[in-house]
Amino acid sequence: MVTELLSFTPLAVLIPFFGAAFAFAFYRNKSTQRAIAIGALILTVILEVTLLAQVWYGGAHAVHLAGWPAPFGIVMVIDRFAALMLVVSSIITLCVLLYAVGQGAAEEKEDSGPVSIFYPTYLILVAGVSNAFLAGDLFNLYVGFEIFLTASYVLLTLGGGESRIRAGVTYVVVSIISSMLFLIAIGMIYAATGTVNLADLALKLGDLDLSTQLTLHVMLLVAFGIKAAVFPLAFWLPDSYPTAPAPVTAVFAGLLTKVGIYAIIRTETLLFPGERINTALMIVAALTMIVGILGALAQADIKRMLSFTLISHIGYLVFGLALSSIIGMAATIYYVAHHITIQTTLFLVTGLIERRSGTSNVLRLGGLAKISPVLGLLFFIPAMNLAGIPPFSGFIGKLGMLQGGIAENTWITWTLVFASVLTSLLTLMAVARIWTRGFWRKPEDADEAPERQLMSKTLAHARAANKRYLPMSMVAPTAALVAMSLAFTVFAGPLMDFSRAAAQDMYERTPYLEAVFGPERSDGVREELEDFAATFLIDYETGDGGAAEHAPVETSLQPDDESAEVVPEITDESDDHR
Amino acid sequence: MTINLTLLVLMGALFAIGIYLLLERSLTRVLLGIILISNAVNLLLLQTAGRAGLAPLYDPEIPAEDYLDPLPQALLLTAIVIAFALVSFMLALIYRSWVLARQDELADDEEDRRVASYAGAYDAEEDASAEDETTEFADETDAVGRPMLNPRRGADEDAPDPGNGPAIAEQGER
């Protein structure tokens, strides 16, 4: 039963694709298009939640497309991490789509181009992201990246206005270059190992010369680093994202960089496990955090400010994965899910602020808390969550990383712990500035001439205008996302356990390999392969002692059976520091 | 692994010229750079197949090493198609940029410049964008030319207005 349901995994990519095809076919009829898009995404969400429920206890599963055995055919692998990413991403995209529908209804002119391309392109974006999450080989990952990047080029330049074209050119050129780097890395890896299948690579890359391994590793990391917006490669992001329409920016900010992070995590755990470049990654992580958040403090425009905090919080994710410990990786997985939700929510709220007040420049904002308390609440919760204030999920994720950093107890991890706390405080400062300027002060006190939309005669007038500017169809999806971000706090216990299990799987690597090759199938593959790949066959038996052999990461932290508490050794260590 | 020296040298030359063109400010040259680099990458993928061999149609009498490895060509075809799509999209973007702003070079980000001047780090002379001549079509530019560009979007209109994009698009389309 379990495997039967999981065989429907490719539908997570196919449903949005078919949705896109039908939406293109009905381009003359906007309401049909809308219904198709929403229907396709609801189906995807239902499917992916079912898949997550199956994977929750079952572990990894691979679907061999067209029945070709593993290293030859295309595989789609769904493990705990991929399933969680799929569910979070599809819920996010559904909420953003509803928001976009609401906005389209509110501003009729918004999508009145000659051919309505928003809905189909959006569905293609979703399909590409799902494909990247499920890809079982490097080239399929590349194709997934290209699918959603191409869709994102179209969405970013939607309408073809001057500022969007200018931002779009930067974005497209940088993305193409990173894709070229990725393709070069794939070529090199294929030349070195003769395979692009991730599970196969996991077995074969270890046999390569150490310096060759390092070269391939760094090439992949640079390619993914550009997409994930890690510090020295992040400068394209704040230039290009803010110009797009609010829902598009929201989904880009939430999802696209996280696909890059997902690819980095896969590279680090499956292909090149070990601690060889961890120090370098940590330095990069610290710089990403600090430079990103300092950039955010310099901005007056909320969208640009949020783009910089996005870069800065990518640093946390890199830190968590550079720890190479189960707790660090578990915290990273949890934090990715949390951060996708939060960042998307904040951009949607910014879209609402922009609608209500006519600008997203904080220098010209004021009095929003009084005019629309709902908007205030919708901004306040995710903003505090982003800064990592205790009851919220941002705090829980950061706490896990700090625990991991303290447990590792080297000078670099302590530096990182310090940098994360500092970044968290600076994030609080950045969002608090928006809050005090945009929401608390009177509109008359604004630094520059405040927007006319904020200067109603009486409070009653202003409240009455809320209905017009903030339609329920836009507020409700935003509120749903805020509720989802709160759910990350409420269900932190089970989610953290789940993340730990996912992290354990990824470091052990055997569940992934066994899912792809299968205990009995690996024998069949062995016979077929014997002619030209005899040397690689020893490792195909991954059922028994593989765990010890393939888990190069010695972690001081192994999850307890029952509780999510820290194990005694660590408590001892952290006691020392107190 | 055997590698064809001609292809290797050609690949190196394409990469070198491509990267050189990519560093230019003119969008057309950047596009040419991208085309060259994508072809260089295709050559790289092609070479990973090793020495040319027989067509990979299974025949029990032929030993495995006589076949050509077909996988790189499959990857290569996909990569060519993707690169083709991206290049046509880039061309459309560049044409659009030309129609709207009559410029063929990459403009500075307004908001960046504003933040820089706010922090006192902007020097009007040093940081001003490059001269008009970088465009290949300078003689056509002069009529409508530069005034379209920057001064229009001054300090009082910082935030990119999400509403004006489609409006302009409509005018453009009709």
Concise description?
Chain A is mainly α and 578 residues long. In chain A, 72% of the residues lie in helices and 1% in strands.
Average pLDDT for all residues of chain B = 73
Shape of chain B: elongated
Q: What's the helix count of chain A?
A: 25
Structural class label of chain A: mainly alpha
Structure explained in plain terms:
- The complex is a heterodimer of chains A (578) and B (174).
- Chain A is 72% helix and 1% strand.
- Chain A is mainly α and 578 residues long.
- Chain A is globular and about 75 Å long.
- Chain B has 174 residues and is mainly alpha-helical.
- Chain B has a domain of 87 residues: Helix Hairpins (Orthogonal Bundle).
- Chain B is built from seven helices and no strands.
- The radius of gyration of chain B is 24 Å and the shape is elongated.
- The C terminus of chain B is likely disordered.
- At the A-B interface, helix 6 and helix 7 of A face helix 2, helix 3, helix 4 and helix 7 of B.
Observed structural traits:
heterodimer; A: 578 residues; two-stranded antiparallel sheet; 25 helices; disordered C terminus; B: 174 residues; mainly alpha; Helix Hairpins
Q: Can you lay out the helices and strands and say which pair or pack?
A:
The complex is a heterodimer of chains A (578) and B (174).
Chain A: H1 2-6, H2 11-25, H3 30-58, E1 61-64, E2 75-78, H4 80-106, H5 118-134, H6 138-156, H7 162-193, H8 198-204, H9 210-228, H10 236-240, H11 246-271, H12 278-298, H13 302-322, H14 326-357, H15 368-371, H16 373-387, H17 393-408, H18 411-440, H19 459-469, H20 472-490, H21 492-508, H22 510-517, H23 521-529, H24 546-550, H25 568-577
Antiparallel strand pairs in A: 1-2
Chain B: H1 5-22, H2 27-47, H3 71-101, H4 110-118, H5 124-127, H6 138-141, H7 164-173
